Amino acid sequence: MSRDTGAFDDLLQEDRRFPPPADFAATAVVDASIYRRAGDDRERYWAEWAEQLEWFEPWRRVLEWNPPYAKWFLGGKLNVSYNCLDRHLAAGRGERTALLWEGEPGDTKRYSYAELHREVCLFANALRGLGVQKGDRVTIYLPMIPEAAIAMLACTRIGAIHSVVFGGFSPESLADRNNDAESKVLVTADGGWRRGTIVPLKENADEALDASPTVESVVVVARGGDLSEQTGVTMVAGRDHWYHDLVAEADPECPAEEMDAEDTLFILYTSGTTGKPKGVVHTTGGYLTQVYATTQAVFDLHDEDVYWCTADVGWITGHSYIVYGPLANCAQVVMYEGAPDHPDRGRFWDLCERYAVTIFYTAPTAIRAFMRWGDEWPAKYDLSSLRLLGTVGEPINPEAWMWYHHVIGGGRCPIVDTWWQTETGGIMITPLPGVTETKPGTATRPFPGIEATILDDEGDETQAGYLAITEPWPSMLRTVWGDDERFKNTYWSKWENIYFAGDGAKRDGDDYFWILGRVDDVLNVAGHRIGTSEVESALVDHPAVAESAVVGKGHEIKGESIAAFVTLKEGVDGSDALVAELREHVGKKIGAIAKPEMVVLTADLPKTRSGKIMRRLLRDIAEGRAVGDTTTLADPAVVRRLQKQHEAEEG
Ligand code: WTA
Fold first, then answer.
1. Residue 443 Cβ < 6 Å to ligand 1
2. How many whole angstroms separate alpha carbon 69 and alpha carbon 512?
3. 20 to 30 Å CA-CA from 362: which of 286, 394, 604, 637?
């Protein structure tokens, strides 16, 4: 295992326990009997959740499992946008608030379910007008504005497959994703706001489009406010269309396409252990069932709740827990465009107060930043509306958990630490807030209907080892887009018919799962997944670089930061300017989130006699630790040189 588990043993000593408050438990959506129901008959249990959705045609069979291929709700026909919108209108809930949106500069919009339905139908017809048909791919590259959710729902309405690309990704990353998915249409915006500056999305898109031959049409949302006057967007005649023009001419009648339960709903690219991101494929019926069920049960969703998940729609958390899960539950959803520290460090708490947020879901990296910014920021606001807190994306250290509990939750809100992945589609390991006694730092138990365990290399159960999922689950990925082999190799080759999550985990005396982090070459930087080899490929793409090795380095706020060891080509002189240029180069190739925090120029990299780079040693050096065993090194002097150099630079 690649992580040092020493600190972790201390965690298992954690004996603070937080039972659900009695008043919370008394009104909770689910009680402990849900575990029994799921245990008695798993398929029946999932079918009961699915029955709460509306199906145009019922399924004939709940599950068909031909490892590693699962099909859920076979023969069932449904539509996701219908279930997120029309179903609620039919129930007389059209006037209920669907989205409460706030832009970073403070502009706001509110959509009722009826209004959101109308917008989705209009844009769905606009997409149809551009020739988009069932099964076609549409890339969505937008800021956190309502049109992001509208565009996603519009795709699902007509059976188009969306591929949302995070707005922070570079033109090159966008082009790679357009090409891999062979997208026909790209939906973007003139720009978006982030920390007071404009993210020039259309400009990036234009650069990407030069290398995206399959994209025939581009739809551009005018972000609005004074931003549009500042972005000099150029529209290419015949290719580019303003969103508002298309929608103005579109028909508001748009019956929802009847989709098969196993039709592809979306592709979402995520980093893996190779340089090429993989397109994780999710389908319709099982995905919607699991995100619907988990949103309701894990967030204890009641009618009066105002729900805010701070993720970006560019990540799976935004897909499942801003858009599909909450809207399928007819929730009132807050959506915020910008940064947590703009115009000041109180922005999130200001939003919580003004929208009277009751359920708040964020990442540990954000919590650690808030902690560092100081208690005075949340103290300025009335956070008494909050009743439930959640975390996702990385292990949460008990100190941050306790701070979240006391300072944000006022000591009264249960915390749900939810473990899951892009690949799992929905929450997999989590407390149920009205049922589970929590302990700071553990995601506790598998969600009812999920079978997880911890295995060693041989596939035997163990207290500490690899996290494994032993039975198929409804929202599991079905494959990697266009690459079944990679799907099999990455997730299903370690053991027979068991899903390998890529995370290390330990189990304590209460049978709670403690997630330790990735055991593969995937970093988790501020909750974002980045493959070490992606960064390495970006570095060697620079003309000055001969070779590079990238490792993760512990970071107080981000959890992990990126450290790059780089050997330059013969005759190239290292300099601070070159280091800065290399960082920029990675930013340009992948996106700002992948820029290495530390770049060490070195004449050699430590390698084994068989030529394998010894990353463990590099991690030790990056973190300033005593260097471990070097006996298998081809040239131990390399490490000594590197260490000396690093000490000199740090000192
Ligand atoms: C990590 C995000 C510990 C884990 C939904 C996983 C977590 C990766 C937790 C997936 C948690 C996510 N505790 N670690 N509660 N939640 N992770 O695909 O390493 O962006 O494999 O999905 O984040 O990241 P992804």
1. yes
2. 29
3. 286
Pocket probe for ligand 1: among 524, 525, 558, 560, the residue whose CB has the most ligand atoms within 8 Å is 524
Beta-bridge mates of residue 65? 70
User: Whose CA is closest to 183, among 219, 150, 147?
Assistant: 219
pLDDT > 80? residue 44: yes
- The reply to whether ligand 1 has any atom less than 6 angstroms from the CB of 143 is no
What is the per-residue pLDDT across 18-32, written as a single tens digit (0 to 9) for each? 999 999 999 999 999
Q: What is the pLDDT of residue 258?
A: 98
Q: In this predicted model, which residue has the larger pLDDT, 527 or 595?
A: 595
Residue whose CA is at the smallest distance from ligand 1 atom 8: 421
CA distances 608 to 553, 605, 631, 634, Å, are: 21, 10, 9, 5
Could you give the domains of the chain? 22-504 (3.40.50.12780), 522-650 (3.30.300.30)
* Residue 90 CB neighbours (<10 A): 11
CA of 7 from ligand 1 middle (Å) equals 19
Helix (H) or strand (E) holding 370: helix 364-373
* Sign for the pseudo-dihedral over CA of 514, 50, 37, 389: positive
Taking the centre of ligand 1 as the mean of its atom positions, its distance from the CA of residue 326, in whole angstroms, is 20
Going from the Cα of 501 to the center of ligand 1, the distance in angstroms, rounded, reads 10
139 lines ligand 1 (CB under 6 A): no
Sheet with 559-568, strands from edge to edge, namely 545-555, 559-568, 598-601
Look at residues 116, 111, 67 and name the one whose alpha carbon lies nearest to residue 87.
Answer: 116
Distance 190 CA to ligand 1 centre (A): 32
In the numeric block, which tokens belong to residue 385? Answer: 């509306």
For residue 362, the model assigns a pLDDT of 98
CA distance 301 to 295: 7
What is the pLDDT confidence band of residue 1, given thresholds at 50, 70 and 90?
Answer: very low
What is the residue type of 436? T
Nearest CA residue ID for atom 13, ligand 1:
395
Q: What confidence tens digit (pLDDT) does each residue in 199-238 have?
A: 999 999 999 999 999 999 999 999 987 776 676 799 999 9
* Contact indicator for 185, 139 with CB cutoff of 8 Å: yes
| pLDDT higher than 90, residue 413 | yes
Contact criterion met (CB below 8 Å) for 212 and 243: no
| CB-based contact 604:636 (threshold 8 Å) | no
- Residue 500: how many CB atoms within 10 A of its CB? 18
What DSSP string runs through 119-144?
A: HHHHHHHHHHHTT--TT-EEEEE--S
Is residue 523 a contact partner of residue 394, using CB atoms and an 8 Å limit?
A: no
What lies within 8 Å, CB to CB, of 104 at 6+ separation is: 193, 194, 195, 196, 336, 337, 338, 339, 342
Output the DSSP codes for 526-576. Answer: TTEEEEHHHHHHHHHTSTTEEEEEEEEEEETTTEEEEEEEEEEPTTPPP-H
**Coil, helix or strand for 233?**
coil
Say yes or no to pLDDT of 629 above 90.
no
**Rounded (to 5) percent helix, strand, coil in the chain:** 35, 25, 40
Q: Residue 5's pLDDT is what?
A: 44
**Does residue 515 contact residue 477 with C-beta atoms inside 8 Å?**
no
What SS3 class is residue 423? coil
CA 418 to ligand 1: nearest atom: 15
- Please say whether the beta carbons of 490 and 271 come within 8 A: no
Tokens coding 7: 């600190």
Other residues' Cβ atoms within 10 Å of the Cβ of residue 459: 14
Strand segments, DSSP code E, in 222-301 are 240-242, 259-260, 264-270, 278-283
